[in-house]
Amino acid sequence: MAQKTAYNVAVVGATGAVGQKIMQLLEEKNFPINKIKLLSSKRSAGKKVVFNNNEVTIEEAKPESFEDVDIALFSAGGSISKALAPEAVKRGAVVIDNTSAYRMEENVPLVVPEVNNEDIAEHNGIIANPNCSTIQMVAALKPIKDAFGINRIIVSTYQAVSGAGAQAVEELKTQSNQHLNGEEMEANLLPVSGDEKHYPIAFNALPQIDVFGDNGYTFEEMKMINETKKILHDAELSVAATCVRLPFFTSHAESVYIEVEQENVRVEDIWKQLENANGVVLEDDPKTQTYPTPLSAADKEEVFVGRVRRDIDNAKGFHLWVVSDNLLKGAALNTVQIAQSLIKNNWL
Amino acid sequence: MAQKTAYNVAVVGATGAVGQKIMQLLEEKNFPINKIKLLSSKRSAGKKVVFNNNEVTIEEAKPESFEDVDIALFSAGGSISKALAPEAVKRGAVVIDNTSAYRMEENVPLVVPEVNNEDIAEHNGIIANPNCSTIQMVAALKPIKDAFGINRIIVSTYQAVSGAGAQAVEELKTQSNQHLNGEEMEANLLPVSGDEKHYPIAFNALPQIDVFGDNGYTFEEMKMINETKKILHDAELSVAATCVRLPFFTSHAESVYIEVEQENVRVEDIWKQLENANGVVLEDDPKTQTYPTPLSAADKEEVFVGRVRRDIDNAKGFHLWVVSDNLLKGAALNTVQIAQSLIKNNWL
NCBIfam families attached here (chains A, B) (predicted)? Predict the structure, then answer.
């Protein structure tokens, strides 16, 4: 079949924070679109938005919505993906899913294009976009692993509220104002909207992202652990994670400890790998206080790495500080990049 | 010599954040004071404050200030301690120093009373109070180390701005208001007042506390590494630290990974040690979302521990979340507790 030059693209969850970033990126990157279909829940259907200078009416997402759709980008929550992604596939679309619904399924590739692009070719209709904290970590670690091997990862995260959605952003603003005005802070949402207790996030740190599993780890922590092994194709890799929600709006930061396999690796060797890596920017010069922060990485597409240093006791141990915009590389951008790769490599 | 029943106590840095907390604790704990002497820089001298219902005039700290002083509590910065602590000792006072000036000196005990109280007996006039982040970590780990051995610690910190002084607290407030009002944030102080560059802390995270050393670690990180080994009397212990300043006012939190020496240690065994430990409170129940946070630990004297869980890959590895008020147990309270122990054990 001759390859198309423009595609019918559906965005499911078009009114959400990630959905809107996806639409913005499709425009900015001149994604080859024949027809765009913006889908949402019944509640948001009927709204009109401007896409590529045309007014588009948002429609309610239904199984029939996916007739004639080539690529469907889902970011409307796990239950919508579970219900509608198979319907989209049945009608011939390739789904790129931003939820955790299919990530650990064996026949679903879990992809960060800089890391395991070739896995896209193996798809059976659904390709999963990894968790935001996982994406930026594996993007930074892949070049190091390829060059020197890595057998141990211990990460502590510093995660922005926007990862919990637009309402969490509002909650941080409201609580910050309340506290600065000497009022009691009202907590209605975080750490997890569906969980029993809510704690203030403003001027605080919450060591819970997503609900707890029976093993004492949160789902967010287990996502980082399991997804990292799957994306890096290394079931033997040791991965530990502690995930913490913090009072900033955009970008996740990560304090990452790794142990490499090779002897005599120097900080300079790791710098060199990071400098040459796709999608990664090295910002690391203690002498000039150069390191990435959540604010400096916001609205940027790359994964930023700083504070690379050798462990004092373990010659094979290294510490890194990894920061990226959680809504861009951590979500919308990675989704669009998968779609671009699908087309470029004729893997639709 | 018969022991006194009340002591002449000097507080050096009486107008600072820690100095004020020290005075408050001396009052609250009915510290046996004969005469209090409040000392400060020339600039603050002459101010009057109320202590134990008496008005006390703050005096400029000079060598002669320490005549007749039994116990001198220093928290006015390293250069003041370097200049005046020896003068106080020469005049017969025992100095408890809250700065980093003497911490790593061989003949100066570095003490957390719950951990190495007996070291106080070895003093030669000066006892050092450890770094705030170190104190809470060793308080939580000592009972675990005693019971099961620990040979590896990797910590990532989440530190409050009050650790950088009262001006940093004001900077966080000002910047937060600026950002919430859509104004540009002005950064004049953090991460380190004396360093070249300043970055906003509000709605951000700064992976720099204190200045950088030549090895790429900050002084704060090296303090945690070196002080932990000294307090725990274990030069062979592997310790790694990444220290991050965050936009909250009070309490430091720490994501701590440890490796124990004994086989077959269970989370329940660690819980039991923490439950029975002096000055430590276990707050750990994922089912009820129970864990400490900076806000929940603020204004409390104990070190709070939650999120205890076994590493998934290393049966001897455990993760903990340790939180404590950085101005209380991290500074003023630990200082007062050392003074109490000096008296109680007749170690003056």
Answer: asd_B, PRK14874.1
pLDDT in tens, A199-230: 999 999 999 999 999 999 999 999 999 999 99
Neighbours of B42 (CB within 10 A): 10
B89 burial level (CB within 10 Å; 0-12, 13-18, 19+): middle
Q: Mean pLDDT over residues B188-202, rounded?
A: 97
State whether residue B104 is helix, strand or coil. coil
- The continuous run of DSSP H or E covering B34 comes out as strand B33-40
CB B329 within 8 A of CB B301: yes
A236: pLDDT strictly greater than 70: yes
Find chain B residues with C-beta within 8 A of A236's C-beta: none
Q: Is B97 helix (H, G, I), strand (E, B) or coil?
A: strand
Q: Which of B142, B136, B177, B188 is nearest to B294 (CA)?
A: B136
The pLDDT of residue A55 is above 60: yes
B252 counts as catalytic: yes
What is the predicted ipTM?
A: 0.97
CA-nearest residue of chain A to B221?
A312
Query: What are the sequence ranges of the domains in chain A?
Result: 7-130+331-344, 134-326
Of all residues in chain B, the one with the smallest CA distance to A247 is: B203
pLDDT band at B299 (very low <50, low <70, confident <90, very high): very high
Average pLDDT, chain B: 97
Task: Please say if the pLDDT value at position A3 is more than 90.
Answer: no
Amino acid at A148: F
Phi, psi of B57 (to 5 degrees): -90, 130
For tokens 């790794």, the residue is A258
**Which region among A13-17, B114-118, B321-325 has the lowest average model confidence (pLDDT)?**
A13-17
pLDDT recorded at residue A4: 85
Is the predicted pLDDT of residue A2 greater than 70, yes or no?
Answer: no
Query: What would the CATH number be for the domain defined by A7-130+331-344?
Result: 3.40.50.720
Q: Render pLDDT for B228-242 as a digit per residue (tens, 0 to 9).
A: 999 999 999 999 999
pLDDT digits (tens, 9 = 90+) for A288-302: 999 999 999 999 999
Q: pLDDT digits over B36-94, tens only?
A: 999 999 999 999 999 999 999 999 999 999 999 999 999 999 999 999 999 999 999 99
**Strand pairing class (A7-12; A71-74):** parallel
Element (H, E) at B142: helix B132-148
Whether the domain at B7-130+331-344 and the domain at B134-326 fall into the same CATH topology: no
- Residue A103 in tokens: 């990530």
In sequence order, the 6+-apart residues with CB closer than 8 A to the CB of A346 are: A3
Contact A101, A75 (CB under 8 A): no
Q: Rounded to whole angstroms, how far apart are CA atoms A229 and A277?
A: 20
Q: Report whether B163 belongs to an annotated binding site.
A: yes
Cα A48 from Cα A59, distance rounded (Å): 9
What are the residue numbers of the active site of A?
Answer: 132, 252
Q: Does B296 show up as a binding residue in the annotation?
A: no
Query: Which residue of B153, B249, B289 is the best one to mutate when testing the A interface, meaning the one whose CB has the most A CBs within 10 A?
Result: B289
Phi, psi torsion values for B337, nearest 5 degrees: -65, -35
Contacts of B218 (CB under 8 A, 6+ apart): B208, B209, B210, B211, B212, B243
Q: Find the closest chain B residue to A197 by CA distance.
A: B289
CATH class assigned to A134-326: alpha beta
Question: A200: cis peptide before it, omega within 30°?
Answer: no
